[in-house]
Amino acid sequence: MSGVSTAAYFARRAAQKERVRILYRRALKDTLNWAVHRHIFYRDACDLREKFNANQDVEDVDRIDKLIAHGEAEYDKWRHPDPYIVPWAPGGSKFCRNPTPPAEIEILYNYGHEDNP
Amino acid sequence: MALRNAVLRHLRVPVQNLAVRGSNQSQIGFLGSIRAFSSHDDHLSKQDVVDRVLDVVKSFPKVDPAKVTPDVHFQKDLGLDSLDTVEIVMAIEEEFKLEIPDKEADKIDSCSLAIEYVFNHPMSS
């Protein structure tokens, strides 16, 4: 059963790899949220990478599923209550704050230099 | 006095193109078709984007800076891992102050895709 490489097996593996990548991305962002200072962040990011690398050679699909579920549970446990979100993104402070001005209006920030074109 | 004012109002002194101070060193080619200090110039130029993305990729510790070109593939040409790709995409997000959704970030696999995404994003700065 472990030697059968059908399209379904590869599709499942690909879906798992995508889940792992997204989980790593979120965990890294979360680490940055918790460890604001870069030197602490680099250390924690290295530890996180080690945790992911330790399981990278597992071949059994069910075991991989369990590991991913365990990882996502850990991520849920460690989520930051006030994550940094880029201001214009949903959840940020500038999101939906002002409507975008119409494209015809152009503001010239040349106070004091109006005489020079 | 009124005559002087009227004359002055109609006199035009030829204006020289002074060096434009401020953050916009755009080419004033066609006599100021791109205005300086305008609110419409907040888009990065393609060369800027390329330079900054390549700088980010070159400063990644697992990457050999000599091999980095604008169309290099992270996993095939640079020999990086998929997790390394995730790290590079995060570094690009931080560089350009973007927030890339997870599904989009997963698809960024090469320098050319990254440059295209950043250049076409309206909020990259």
Automatic annotation (TrEMBL), chain A:
Entries under InterPro entries matching the protein: Complex1_LYR_dom, Complex1_LYR_NDUFB9_LYRM3, NDUFB9
One annotated Gene Ontology cellular component of this protein: mitochondrial inner membrane
Entry's localization field: Mitochondrion inner membrane
Main location: mitochondrion
Superkingdom of origin: Eukaryota
Topological relation to the membrane, as annotated: Peripheral membrane protein
Complex 1 LYR protein domain residues: 19-74
GO biological process: mitochondrial electron transport, NADH to ubiquinone
Keyword Electron transport applies: yes
Pfam entry (one): Complex1_LYR
Keyword field: Acetylation, Electron transport, Membrane, Mitochondrion, Mitochondrion inner membrane, Phosphoprotein, Respiratory chain, Transport
Function as written in the Swiss-Prot or TrEMBL entry: Accessory subunit of the mitochondrial membrane respiratory chain NADH dehydrogenase (Complex I), that is believed to be not involved in catalysis. Complex I functions in the transfer of electrons from NADH to the respiratory chain. The immediate electron acceptor for the enzyme is believed to be ubiquinone.
Subunit-level organization: Mammalian complex I is composed of 45 different subunits.
Family statement drawn from the similarity comment of this UniProt entry: Belongs to the complex I LYR family.
Protein name: NADH dehydrogenase [ubiquinone] 1 beta subcomplex subunit 9
Originating species: Brassica napus
Gene responsible for this protein: BnaC03g65880D
TrEMBL record, chain B:
Associated pathway: Lipid metabolism; fatty acid biosynthesis
Keywords: Electron transport, Fatty acid biosynthesis, Fatty acid metabolism, Lipid biosynthesis, Lipid metabolism, Mitochondrion, Phosphopantetheine, Phosphoprotein, Respiratory chain, Transit peptide, Transport
UniProt cross-references to SUPFAM superfamilies, sorted A to Z: ACP-like (SSF47336)
Pfam families noted in UniProt: PP-binding (PF00550)
Domain Carrier, residue spans: 47-122
Key word Mitochondrion present: yes
Keyword flag Chloroplast: no
Family matches, as InterPro entries: ACP (IPR003231), ACP-like_sf (IPR036736), PP-bd_ACP (IPR009081), Ppantetheine_attach_site (IPR006162)
Subcellular location: Mitochondrion
Gene3D superfamilies assigned to the protein according to its UniProt record, in alphabetical order: ACP-like (1.10.1200.10)
A GO-annotated cellular component: mitochondrion
A single GO molecular function term of this UniProt record: acyl binding
Chief site of localization: mitochondrion
Top-rank lineage group of the source organism: Eukaryota
Known function: Carrier of the growing fatty acid chain in fatty acid biosynthesis. May be involved in the synthesis of short and medium chain fatty acids. Accessory and non-catalytic subunit of the mitochondrial membrane respiratory chain NADH dehydrogenase (Complex I), which functions in the transfer of electrons from NADH to the respiratory chain.
Family of the protein in this entry: Belongs to the acyl carrier protein (ACP) family.
Subunit and interaction comment: Complex I is composed of at least 49 different subunits.
PANTHER family (alphabetical): ACYL CARRIER PROTEIN (PTHR20863), ACYL CARRIER PROTEIN, MITOCHONDRIAL (PTHR20863:SF28)
The protein's name: Acyl carrier protein
Organism this protein belongs to: Brassica oleracea (Wild cabbage)
Highest classification ranks of the organism: Eukaryota, Viridiplantae, Streptophyta, Embryophyta, Tracheophyta
